[in-house]
Amino acid sequence: xDSQHHWMAHHQTRSIFNLILPGTHNSGAYTIDPQSxxxxxxxxxxxxxxxxxxxxxxxSIYQQLLDGIRxxxxxxxxxxxxxxxxxxxxxxPLETVLQDVCRFVTHYPTExxxxxxxxxxxxxxxxxxxTVSLFQELCSELLIPVSERGLSIGEMVAKHYKVLLFSxxxxxxxxxxxxxxxxWLAERWHDTxxxxxxxxxxxxxxxxENTTGKFIMTGPILTPTTSFIKHVYMxxxxxxxxxxxxxxxxxxxxxxxxxxxxxxxxxxxxxNFKQQISVKNFNILQMDFPSDELISExxxxxxxxx
Length: 306
Description:
Layout: H1 2-5, E1 21-24, H2 44-54, H3 61-66, E2 71-79, E3 82-87, E4 89-93, H4 94-107, E5 113-119, H5 129-139, H6 153-158, E6 163-166, H7 168-172, H8 181-184, E7 185-187, H9 195-207, E8 215-218, H10 226-234, E9 242-245, E10 248-251, H11 255-272, E11 284-287, H12 292-300
Parallel strand pairs: 1-2, 1-11, 2-5, 5-6, 7-8, 8-11
Antiparallel strand pairs: 2-3, 3-4, 9-10
Helix pairs in contact: 4-5, 9-11, 11-12
């Protein structure tokens, strides 16, 4: 797996826009701040249930990058004027994530990291000033300017440009070298708990040419519905919850179960339709709980696509 640490070293003459990147969805959701569920300590099942649908990863940000992930999805909330990465619950300080990113690109200077950052739904910061200040303090020199988008990866890293940041909020607050998501990024979010619907939409994403002129982000992401979560509430003491879906009963009890089946679909498509999958169609495949095997297969697409 050591080759995953610096896999972009083999693509230095190419543009970052001409690669397919493995990414994580809600990248910071590998941990939860203990205080997030403190109000529910007297109701153990509520805290336990929340964790089933908050956690989307098993590895730290630094470990994700070591394992080949090159796109991070960060949702931000503000607590005592400190920006936190969150996923409904507080996860960890944004500062910790940015320190991991800076440490990684220092150790592996051939690599570029894409960050998509926005407010956590329903918990958006009232002010983005402290988030802007944190980026200015920790990694302003690493941010790739829009004006340099024509450079190859090798040319970018030679200028010490290591981070491509998409964020409407930070762009609107005047953060230099931040790319407005609305202009440059298109996310194909399917918002479904149905495996059959996801299969059809994901196949279309992977094999249909992108005509938007934007950086395209998609992924095998299943979204738990309110009905699904209610089933889990009702059967919390069971080791597995059988939920009625459009595909019939599926044994899922948490996001990890949903991700396992969704990622299996993506892995099958990549292996069986590799010649039809191209960077002309999409740029980032973001995932919950990605396996090393799936990350490797996504990286391998860059040896068959131009």
